[in-house]
Amino acid sequence: MATELDRVDVVTVGVGWTGGIVAAEAAKAGLQVVGLERGRERGTEDYQNIHDEYKYAIRYELMQDVSKETITFRNTPDQQALPMRQLGSFLLGENLGGAGTHWNGQTWRFLPYDFEIRSMTEEKYGEEKLMEGDGYRLQDWGITYDELEPYFDKFEKTCGISGEENPLGGERSDAYPTPPMIKTRILEMFEEASSGLGYSPIMMPSANLSEQFENPDGETIAACQYCAFCERFGCEYGAKSSPEVTVIPTARKTGNFEVRTHSNVVEILTDEEDDSQVSGVRYVDTRTGEEFIQPADVVVLNSYVFNNYKLLRVSDIGEQYDPETEEGSLGRSYCYQIFGGATGYFDEQFNTFMGAGALGMAFDDFNGDNFDHEDLDFVHGGNMAITQTGNRPIATNPIRPDTPSWGSEFKKESIENYTRTLSVSGQGATLPHKDNYLDLDEEYTDVYGVPLVQLTYNFKDQDRARHKYLAERSAEVLEEMGASEVVQSSELGDYSIVPYQSTHNTGGTIMGDDPEVSVVNNWLQHWDRDNLFVVGAGNFVHNGGYNPTATVGALAYRCAEGVIRFAEEGGRLEEE
């Protein structure tokens, strides 16, 4: 029998970026908050010996243990979905800080076009450009860029983001809090080449800070050392903005926040007397197996895309999406991303082994609707970038396509090209399609006996066309940079769960202004449970041409404001 605990004002399920933001803001407002984190405690002191590529980048020390919980995957409903036995296409975080610990730090705001993609596309190009006959289901987000802009600004100031204004991005209310990172020889070459082609390159907005910064909550973030151990690693210097060095300490300092680690939530409990409310959550101590019930006035789901969806589904909250009838909102509009790029082989050598997770330059001339799509067979596009994240020796073996993947020729090519290859890539958007969705698997369960999430996903024709277009533009930039040979990425085939591509999963718990086709409103409040909030990249109605974290952070601040308002006023939150 589960032990029932004392009631609290707010419980967050997960303590990463979104859980930390909601906890910090709610605790500062005087609410008593409990954060349930299924992983263990960790912080900067745990990363003093982090420069171990095998342990962290290959063996995934900071990632979810897929022997306990994973997902099953298939391209189409007529295939047998099978469990992902080893992390591949994306890397789910675990422990305090979540994926916010091991991210690269690339901190882009989604474009104004992203939030009103359906209405803007239809207005400019006509209804036929929506391609609904081909199964695409574009929706507006129920919130505009201008409405979300103050929350973007708050997230950037909490993180101390280093950057410069983007002439092709949305309008800003303030400058970035710290200046851009160092512009290396590689980035200068990219800037000169892309400017020469008529594009508008800028330094990438970075959570690896160019200088030490004290944020508005009084937390100090150190300056980046350019050690090249960002993605898949925690920062030993405290120089990469992450939940452990920003929002979590802020929440703790209030005295109103308690983190409970090793606490895996398995069910959201609906109030027995009022089914428009939840009463709390049931969770399992992962060390002892003991079950607890944590009553709360407000429950906020802050875990990863898949787990937010899973908790709603197993708790019977919301209507599951059916791809045949297209009824139901829970699980719909799952999206990923594409990366159309090219690799250039150069005669000169570069310091490719040095860098930082968000050290790069990029331009948005082919992102969103910044270019004419009238004669193209796709909409949206991607952010074009070169990054100097630091090539680590085990996983970096730049060889030409006709080189064997082992043996003396492989070794010779790897050593020769390690400091002589540069890549330019277009991080491309993907759009919701009626056949891409999340469900529960009827055959496989996790270690707690809860069904696994089943992912049904494949790239569509627009993805393949967008990928090809961005790859061609990437090759042009590398040729302009002076590469002696340019190899364009091959055309996109079926989506595969391996190898790694990006941890940029979106959809499944999307936001909107219509409860028939969305899970939450624009305060991230669940349509069916007034005191339940769900926030994360699962709220994205489609995926954009950027890394998602800044938009996730902005939504989390919006959600936190909604939670505080609900605690004060109750009821259904309306737009201001």
UniProtKB/TrEMBL annotation:
GO terms for molecular function: flavin adenine dinucleotide binding; oxidoreductase activity, acting on CH-OH group of donors. Keywords: FAD, Flavoprotein, Oxidoreductase. InterPro entries: FAD/NAD-bd_sf (IPR036188), GMC_OxRdtase_N (IPR000172), GMC_OxRtase_C (IPR007867). It comes from the Bacteria. The keyword Ribonucleoprotein does not apply. Residues 222-322 form the Glucose-methanol-choline oxidoreductase N-terminal domain. Residues 432-556 form the Glucose-methanol-choline oxidoreductase C-terminal domain. PANTHER family: LONG-CHAIN-ALCOHOL OXIDASE. Belongs to the GMC oxidoreductase family. This is GMC family oxidoreductase. It comes from Salinicoccus roseus.
